[in-house]
Amino acid sequence: MCTVxxxxxxxxxxxxxxxSHTHEHDHHHHEHPHDHEHSHEHSHEESNSGHTHDYGQGPxxxxxxxxxxxxxxxxxxDILSKNNDYANANRNWFAEHGxxxxxxxxxxxxxxxxxxxxxxxxLKNELSLSVIEGDQQTANDAERIRETGxxxxxxxxxxxxxxxxHMVGHAxxxxxxxxxxVLFIENVGNLVCPAAFDLGEAHKVAILSVTEGEDKPLxxxxxxxxxxxxxxxxxxxxxxxxFDVEKCIEYARRVNPGIKVIQVSATTGEGMDTWYQWIxxxxxxxxxxxxxxxxxx
Amino acid sequence: xxxxxxCEGVLQALQENAQKEGYTxxxxxxxxxxxxxxxxxxxxxxxxxxxxxGSLADNARLEIIDxxxxxxxxxxxxxxxxxxxxxxxPDCSSYQLQVTGGEEMKIKELxxx
Lengths: 297, 113
Known about the structure:
Chain A is an alpha/beta fold.
């Protein structure tokens, strides 16, 4: 059971968090400031699944003769509002602690974890780093990251195809990233669902490898639209492939005119410095206004 | 996309709203789904029925209101209709478009008792 809100997590497993049972959680006490304004006593609806009281067809139970007892409720609520609340709580927490958070998204097999381990190896002496790994199953990736010596936490989403703000919030409690550090969140390998689920990150970074199709930005436009940076990985393999880099970048700009593109190879190290520059520059922006911020000449 | 999680989100919102507004049954749910939101309405209907089984919205009718994709064309300096995120401007063929509408996924209205 989770200590903050008493929720169970379904099939989601967060390392260091022991959610062993699966129950529906619909009462996050800390989330609903308005919950008890109207104190109607009615029991929960789950119990009457066996039979149906159908008064909806006519005036049966209406207070005024001839009037249906049904009514309209204007709700105007974003379907993702719940996730967005969790994401905003994460974002505030990151801001408070001066943490730059990057949400790395890609299809499976783009070389995300290799790119990440190399980046960590190259940056860990300069910056304080930590990693949240999202996969459906196994803690293999978190173990790979831990071998580099930085803090890493695995979230297994079970049935889920994406990380959400709630999972990341809980992961932060266990992982405890350092003040003014850089947190990488390696999302579940999936170019569809993670686009819609804000985790509270500063930027989404889409990783596309040249062994995939150059038209992926068009096939999965939501993701490339949501990302601020695209890392085109495995460029060392370009001589052996029919991958049109220019075309790929053009497609990415079609769905997102503002996207930045860096060509990298996690194997040879080509382009990696530019990626590190981007991280450092972005971190500078995160740090602006903090007491420890020193303007570099 | 992830219509099942979205429907779970809808059901959660209904359960919370039911407590606040004091109703026990939902007969109709109107959702506003933008054409650029990446939501497949057929999958949404399928998931909705599955997710709401045995809940306060069991057998509820799902009405989906399509919201067209809209963008601002920077070349023409005017709003234009688009069907996909990577559509070009229908007038000037530029890709310099800022999406301004059609990304919503919203629970608009409910019929309850």
